[in-house]
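Audit log entry. Action: structure prediction of a protein-small molecule complex. Ligand: zinc ion. The ligand was supplied as SMILES and no pocket hint was given, so placement is left entirely to the predictor. Protonation state taken as written. Sequence taken verbatim from the request; no trimming, no tag removal. Recorded inputs:
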Amino acid sequence: MDIAKCTLDGSTYTAVNFALLPPNEMSEKRQNLVCTECEKDAFFRKASRTGQAACFGARPHESDCSFASAETQRVENEAGDEDRIRNPGQNIIIDLNYGAAPRVNVDVDPNDQGGNNEGRGRHVGNRPRPNANMQRRLSTLLRTLINSEEFRGSLQQITLGENEPTTVANFFVNFADVDAQHDYQFHGYWGLLADARLGNNGNLWLNSGGQGNISCLIQNDDVDAFYQRYNIDDIEDFAGTYILVLGEKNTSQNGKPYVVANGLERIVIQK
Ligand SMILES: [Zn+2]
């Protein structure tokens, strides 16, 4: 879309005019944009080197917003992610093994339902223990989070490594819902990126909004590999992409909430 409103100054900008703002002003304002009609979070993307004009976008707009039809509202599913993932009787095992051959869908072993807890009667809650596992990669989980409200609120069991199982609704936290209760808590934090910046020490900050909004930190040793993995050569490419990162929420000395990906296998982006 060609216009968006900045919530800092209350002004409506055209993409052409927004692109002319001084760098510091633009950096601040692009993290505080909303759609002029439905007021959903919006992002700004500078003109690309390949000739695409500067533009605004929102992912998603409200369904009745007149800007919605002009933009891609959904992230494409691959081979019916949603249908395959939503099975309340199965425990989702998060597969961090990026790039390996896909796993066979379901590992059923009714005699080994609790791993090394077998026989001790340890149950979490009073829901029936799932009798099967399914391996799911972060990329599939992120696409399903984006596309399915039902999945976001699901009580389906999910497990990462040796951690206690939890529910999908508890494990994944959208950026908009992050608050003090998540301090030092390990979750799958996900949402839309407003922009990205390289710090002086080479760390990459992927920002969901302004100072009060959570950012994801990629440490400098991982930045080159991260760019290569997603074929990114311009930091502008991050504006308007979705991200999912597994880690603990921390707060910097100047009060900025952030989460560090402890290894690139714990982070995924969806362009
Ligand atoms: Zn809108």
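Audit: result stored. Residues 3-70 form one domain. Residues 102-124 have pLDDT under 50 and may be disordered.
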